[in-house]
Amino acid sequence: MTRKHDKNTEDILKDIPNGKIIINRHNSTHENTIFNKDFRYCSDGRGLVDTYSVFPGIELSFNYYYANCFEFQHRPVHSAMQINHCRSGRMGWKMQDQSTIYLGPGDLSLHTLHSCADSAMNLPLGYYQGVSVFIDLDALTATPPDILSEAGINGNNLYAKFCEQDGHTAMPASEKIEHIFSELYDLPERMYLPYFKLKVQELLLFLDMLDLENTKRLNQYVSGQVETIKEIHSLMTSDLKRHYTIEELSKQYLMNTTTLKSVFKAVYGMPIASYMKEYRMKLASNMLLQEDKSISEIAAAVGYKSQSKFTSAFRDIFQILPTAYQKLYRNQ
């Protein structure tokens, strides 16, 4: 049985028109989630959300987005928390306070539904797949599941630990986070709810035990820095025959080299040189399959004067020579 959560994001969303998010609420009626009746969105792409009621006041959703950006508006709720785990792709969520948190594969974020009431989600790689857990903190305090009750976990403590100061926090991927979420993506349907209950409680136990003061956090970035990096990305990808140095970009955009490198990696998930190499090779792989050009012409089109250097770079990314790649995939 092929499970939806194992598929490519674009394949999952192929039947959904642009500008549309389909929200499937399975046994879910709770209002204190992002997908309540006041939820509004605007996008240049498409999305799918499958959400399940796990406990009273706690829901879990699988999220699939294929777009450049989504803008969200919904009812602000201080007493509700959203926990996000990125499985694949990359997401930058610009919160109501204008700070942006970027998540890559394995990263985790927590925020109140007040923080994201009027917010924008940018997808630097064009797609995102992940899981969200929505928690009505008042309901968790009033009627916690037995295991959480025994551990003394309640909504007030969660809010005070993770959201009281800024309304949001985020942490990078770790083995413990991966252990909690990885099994969610490979379940037969009959095991959905039992496993969701198990994993939600495991997640909340983990968060309760977490020593936040000694835990590495993901940086938050102001909107001006992010917009500058997007302009730099646009410049570099608009003319692949031109190769820019970090120093050139730093002077042109009045951003010091350390900040430029740090913010670019946060937004796009890789250092600039690695990103541009992969960007060029992915474009070249499409040209090999779709255009009637020689290897040397394709190499030149993506910024390589030397065919041998292009071939070496292509093999680094795809573990196959360009000629073999073309022969293997062109007629499929």
UniProtKB/TrEMBL annotation:
InterPro entries: Homeodomain-like_sf (IPR009057), HTH_AraC (IPR018060), HTH_AraC-typ_CS (IPR018062), PchR_regulatory_protein (IPR053142). Residues 230-328 form the HTH araC/xylS-type domain. PROSITE patterns: HTH_ARAC_FAMILY_1, HTH_ARAC_FAMILY_2. Transmembrane segments: none annotated. GO terms for molecular function: DNA-binding transcription factor activity; sequence-specific DNA binding. The keyword Transcription applies. Keywords: DNA-binding, Transcription, Transcription regulation. It comes from the Bacteria. SUPFAM superfamilies: Homeodomain-like. The keyword Kinase does not apply. This is AraC family transcriptional regulator. The lineage of its organism: Bacteria, Bacillati, Bacillota, Clostridia, Lachnospirales.
